[in-house]
Amino acid sequence: MFKCKTSPEVGGMGHSVKRKEDARFLHGKGKYTDDVKLPGMLHMVIVRSPYAYAKILSINKEKALAIDGVLAVITGEDLAQYNLHWMPTLLSDSQMVLPTDTVMHQSQEVCAVIATDRYIAVDGAEAVDVQYEPMKAIVNPFKALDEDAPLLRPDKEGQKDNHIYHWERGEREKTDAAIAAADVVVKERIHLPRIHVASIETCGVVASYDKDTEKMLIYLTSQAPHAIRTILALVAGHVGLSEEKIRIIAPDIGGGFGGKVPVYPGYVIAIAASFLIGKPVKWIEDRSENLVNGFARDYHMDCELAATKDGKIQAFKVSTLADHGYTDSSANPSKYPTGMFSICTGSYDYEHAFAELDAVYTNKAPGGVAYRCSFRVTEAVHAIERMVDKLAAEIGKDPAQLRFENFIKKEDFPYASPLGWSYDSGDYKQTLEKAMDMIGYADYKKEQAEKRAQGKLMGIGICTFTEVVGAGPSKDFDILGIKMFDSAEIRVHPTGKALARFGTKSQGQGHETTYAQILAEELGIPYTDIEIDEGDTDTAPYGLGTYASRSTPTAGAAAAIAARKLRDKGKKIAAHLLEVSEEDIEWEVGKYFVKGAPEKSKTIQDVAFAAYTNFPEGMEPGFEATHYYDPPNLTFPNGAYICVVEVEEETGAIDVKRFVAIDDCGNIINPMIVEGQIHGGLTQGIAPAMYEGIVYDDEGNVLNGTLMDYLVPTAVESPHWETGHTITPSPHHPLGAKGVAESPTVGAPPAIANAIIDALYPLGIKHLDIPITPDKVWDAIQVAKAKA
Ligand code: PCD
């Protein structure tokens, strides 16, 4: 159990204080990119391709330019004059900013209209006349590798087919041998479909170039403003946009979820337009543009899990085909083309594993965004958790029991996983037991047996996941070469109030509150006296940003260590004020006192004042500290989720009766915020499990490109989430904390899928891919009945 060291007024770790930022958000006072209005600001609207694959024969701007208020139509040819028509992706592939000859997916940017207002820009976009010659698109990733498949990326030197890369980890031969020798092997091809990051706020930018100062000010919906500044300087340095001249401000963000990590063509076009025209240019993506032009997941995974006949897991093998669309713009660290997919061995202890992946180009939107997932952890967890359930069903063992028998044990941490991770800590048994107690597992098992006897379909699904978050140690983790540390800078003012700045950027997570709580914990300054500032590259220390549940593991740690530096300096000042030697000073949250004479003390506020007014001779004045934190390892949050469903045989309707989520993210800064994170994340977990999936036809048209057709679950679809936690502190994090925000989105889909498939098992249905919709269930029931 965690015991709070501070009073609720100070609000250090463990206090469920209300979010400071909510006063602003709940009163509609948030300031988002679209709220930025600059004098003389122009508006941009993008003309997009109706075809998935086509030659551009001509772009006629005339009619558009004739409209009063339309100032420019920017094409790929225009950008090519400045060599700005292509840009690198985060994984060193190349992506068109605007095409000069070919469009590669439906809705790709073709050209952009700049006008005095948005309505005029929309009219202008409609008036642009583009002639295309459509070509046969490659939609099915398996066909992308056929010999007669057209080469989609002839622009890439040495590219002979549509294969992007092969990746593998582990021991193929030993794993194959273990599988060949095993008593039981279960196999399945599992697809995690393309889904969409449906944040409330779409992407957007206001770029404002000042020709006099040569400064480029950019308001951007970005989870990683510093990294984007550097990338922009690398891409556009040759036209004069060098890094010290670029200032990116990420204002309030209405949800990021990984979708606001990449650089999108629209950003670059708006920036280029402002640079060329010398006026501010705003581009705000509309809802459908947002839905169709990126994606997450899209992994086809062939899994094999081998075990002894009584269920001791021996080996896991997974071969994946990844559909990356027309360019590999996955948001992964440089050395990890498949992200952290190698966490796929899960929470279980066995020796042999092998994972491989081939990525291919198709005529679809690029993306591979780490949608609430620390780079492909969702895919990995789905694979192993579905397979463990399949194994349990195959050998007729209770899936909870099978998990208990295979868990990595508490005393085995740090645990070296077969694919190369060092799991930091966990107590999987305790976590699953807690979930089972909370839901009443044994009673549900009885009820299920009774219902089955009456021919009713009821299912219980478990997921016991291990995540890997907090990228990451600089020896392994970088994005385009920039190491993945993060930073905190604290200034304590003379009156004892403070300002702290970070290299991360909240998008709704509550950093303004939780970072202040970390500092309150370490310094004893009340969290309400500490302002938190993020997202402005001119003022914040350099950092890699907020995604991959990394803010707590990296910047949160940086805050604690910077605060400890301050405490060390404060000790010297306290000794000076109390006229004793430094060795005689002790610290207790919020104050220094003389050893053995606690009545002789100075508060942190006294000390801060003295740092400016009465510091020891020779000491550097001021009370500030900065720390750049390079984590020694990642953190491995984990959890046990249990879901109970009933399925109606006549209609395929699925009713989620109960859902219990027990999470272990180590020590918790703010339990209420964590609970909120879990609630939101579980809803984003039921989404792909039961509702979401981007559907293409054979021509590469997106069939559900609006929120009328793409069902994002709301409160109506969401069950009542029941949450709880266990605490196994991270041994290497200064606060013992682990990241948590993505766990629920990773853990929920397999728990729900396992529950639904368990319900259908008596009919002989052994697997369904998500989203498991009523019509998919109904179809499967008809097929199963026809077979019976
Ligand atoms: N926490 C606490 N404790 C612990 C942990 C944590 O308290 N132990 C808390 C903190 O402080 C914060 C939160 O919680 O506030 C979170 O955290 P983390 O886990 O660290 O994370 P971050 O980094 O901060 O964040 C990020 C995440 C992600 S990743 C995502 S997707 C999502 C989530 O976050 N997003 C979002 N959540 C959210 N929320 C909101 N509201 N919004 C958003 O947008 Mo990616 O990679 O990007 O895909």
From TrEMBL:
Location of the Aldehyde oxidase/xanthine dehydrogenase a/b hammerhead domain: 27-136
The UniProt record lists the keyword Oxidoreductase: yes
Protein name: Carbon-monoxide dehydrogenase large subunit
UniProt keyword annotations, A-Z: Molybdenum, Oxidoreductase
Molecular function terms, GO-annotated: anaerobic carbon-monoxide dehydrogenase activity; copper ion binding; iron ion binding; molybdenum ion binding
InterPro entries: Ald_Oxase/Xan_DH_a/b, Ald_Oxase/Xan_DH_a/b_sf, Ald_Oxase/xanthine_DH-like, AldOxase/xan_DH_MoCoBD1, AldOxase/xan_DH_MoCoBD2, AldOxase/xan_DH_Mopterin-bd_sf, CO_Mo_DH_lsu
Pfam family, one: MoCoBD_2
